[in-house]
Amino acid sequence: MKLLFKALTGLVLALTLSACATTPSATRSAMPDDAVLGFSQPDVRIDSFTVSVPKSLKVNERNTYYPIGDIVWRGDPMGDRHAQVKAMFEAGLRNAAPRIEGARAVRMDVQVTRFHALSEKARYSVGGVHDIDFKYRLVDVATGQQIGPTRDVSADLEGLAGQAAMAADGRGETQKARIIAHLSRVFVEELTVPGGYVNANLGLLQAINDL
User: pTM for this structure?
Assistant: First the structure.
């Protein structure tokens, strides 16, 4: 019933607002050793990383304004969407790592919990929000011990619409390029800015995702 309500709400908003194509709540996946050990901003550098996109996350390929699912991705050819999302996170981490210059070498283990970009119908009409959630832990390379708690991060990004989306594609600023660059910024801020990354406030449709 909750998913039906959100789907209907999203459809109404898509037909009545100028930017309104987002999604329902995600299936959340637990990460091993999810211990809350007390958080303080670590002085770290990324020595290595892992990315997990659990197969339990449901993919939706329907071209509707408001596809129900955990993974909606159309920026690559049809294929293994879990692997495609993983590759984008890995690219974001590779780009971010040289900009994180702390003293302590860590492995960063990332687990994606939601990756809901825009369907074709939404992107080329009303736009929306790329709804991206993940969790991560840091493991000291020298000791093998987790540093601090496992952290949940929401990293939403405004999705371009219509002519703006097509113009961005023409400049090479595709959904994929924008999201990888965004993820790089998120990782850098999360590990270098006091308190970590702060998610953008993207309005009503973003709030619906959290219902």
Answer: 0.80
Distance in angstroms (rounded) separating the CA atoms of residues 44 and 192 = 8
Bridge partners of residue 147, in order along the sequence: 138
Query: Quick check: helix, strand or coil at residue 186?
Result: helix
Beta strands in the chain (DSSP E): 44-52, 71-72, 104-116, 128-140, 146-154, 157-159
Quote the distance between the C-alpha of residue 156 and its chain's center. 6
Q: What pLDDT, on the 0 to 100 scale, is given for residue 211? A: 53
- Dihedral angle of Cα 76, 82, 84, 87, to the nearest 10 degrees: 160
When pLDDT is averaged across residues 124-152 and rounded to a whole number, the result is: 95
| Domains of the chain by start residue, with CATH | 2-209 (3.40.50)
Q: What is the spatial distance between Cα 209 and Cα 130, in angstroms, rounded to a whole number? A: 11
Bridge partners for 50 per DSSP: 109
